[in-house]
Amino acid sequence: MPVTEAQAHALVARFMQYYNYNTTLEAFQEEAAAYFTDPSQTSLPSNDLDTVLQAVSQLTLGEQRTVTLPPCDGHFCSTLHTTHDHWHGVNILTVSSEPTNNIVATSAIDKTVKVHHLDGSQPAQVYRHHDAPVLSIAFHPAYTNLMLTTSMDGSAALVDLSRQNPDDALVQRFRDHQRYVVQGVFSPSTSPQHYLCTASYDRTVRVYHWNDPDGDVHYQSIGKVGPFAGNVESICFLPRSPVDAQDAQHMLVAVQNDNYLHVLSLQPQGVQLTRKINMNANGDDWISFSPVWISMYPAAPTSSGAKDDRNDPLGSLVLVSTNHSSGRMILLDTTSGKQIQNYYVHPSNNEFLTRRHVFHPSGTCFYAIGSELDNAIKVVETGSGQVVASLTGHSAMIRSLTLHHDHLLTCGYDHTVKLWGEPFSQQNLR
Fold first, then answer.
1. Which PROSITE patterns match (predicted)?
2. Cα dist. 34→45, 56, 60, 223, 280 in Å?
3. Dihedrals φ, ψ of 26, to 5°?
């Protein structure tokens, strides 16, 4: 809906009222009294918080956008295609996809990692190489038989799926962290070097380098960054820039109780912290929220179909899920540090919810989890902040989501993995 200046002030007041920011509300209404003299100018269509927050998300940030975000064309996952309720039988913690081989890996509280062939051509392979549940799974972008797992036991493991016996599949173990290892990532296929990075609740990031891809797989530690101000919650690689040094690759780090995102520079000889990006639009250091998940805007495909992020004007955008009770998410330009858009999805005071997201391959929308009421996945248009669909089907908290080709995979505490796609009629026409 179009929002006038008076309605914008009313929206802010409604937001403060909902969260009982009474002192702030009183001061705000006094300073902005001119906007509250005519009730007809500040009337809003609904008292529903979701409606208020969606309208707030469409307000300008005070500065003109430096990028143009394409609109959603209506092609996104909106239909539940398949439910897998027999893969673990207990709470499922994470799901990851390797689309080249059409496989999906899952982990659960039973400490196992299971690798499934979606076409049913082979039985699931079961891996038991950790002493505690696995929190993240990643596949190497070039050597797709290599799977990286990180665990609550403080270790990370590199596994070769091409080995027939899962008990003999462990290639390398990393034991450099002192607490939970919450995420592990490989450098993207566009990187000039092979890096492996892990993030931990010991407040550090560890970086490893594989210097001989033609030889045996062996990553060597090239550095530790930290301790940071809080637990490291999420990491992701930044797109390469045309001005980057030949071997340089940059990484973004999200930290609990910190209003900055940290940029690391990785080179074979080591790693260093190069700069920080303030998530506060006014540039202050007030900490009212923490980042809990970050991911980069999808790279644009080249004429050959490969992803190329070096010259994409949208390639520097990062989406940040936060722990704020409003469900706030922020789209930031990592080059300028400016906020491009704010979103308010799944408002809740429950601090134990898992708040994560994944972009649609086009970048025109994204999928967000963190619902407390109906365990729904919200589909949000990136440019406008409007919730264009709500996917319901899970009966307990969703813990993880990922893309698999044009489909969406989700898993959670209802012991299921669900595959979502476009309505069958639309999909068949494409």
1. WD_REPEATS_2, WD_REPEATS_REGION
2. 21, 20, 20, 57, 27
3. -60, -45
Handedness of CA 283, 289, 292, 295 (dihedral sign): negative
Helix axes 5-18, 49-57, angle to 10 degrees: 130
Q: Which of 124, 50, 135 is nearest to 96 (CA)?
A: 135
Q: List C-alpha distances in Å: 348 to 50, 325, 345, 353.
A: 11, 5, 9, 8
Q: Which domain holds residue 41?
A: 5-45
Q: What is the pLDDT of residues 93-148, one digit of tens each?
A: 999 999 999 999 999 999 999 999 988 778 899 999 999 999 999 999 999 999 99
Phi-psi region of 162 (alpha: psi -120 to 50; beta: other; left: phi over 0): alpha
Please list the residues that pair with 330 across neighbouring strands. Answer: 320, 342
Contact by Cβ (8 Å): 206, 227: no
pTM for the complete prediction?
Answer: 0.85
Asked if the structure places residue 20 within a domain, the reply is yes
> Which residues, 6 or more positions from 122, have their beta carbon under 8 angstroms from its beta carbon?
none
Q: Tell me: the pLDDT tens digits for 165-193? A: 999 999 999 999 999 999 999 999 888 89
Q: Given CA atoms 139, 145, 146, 148 in this order, what sign does their dihedral have?
A: positive
Domain count, the chain: 1
Query: For residue 379, what are its two tokens?
Result: 């589909």
Beta bridge pairs of residue 115: 105, 125
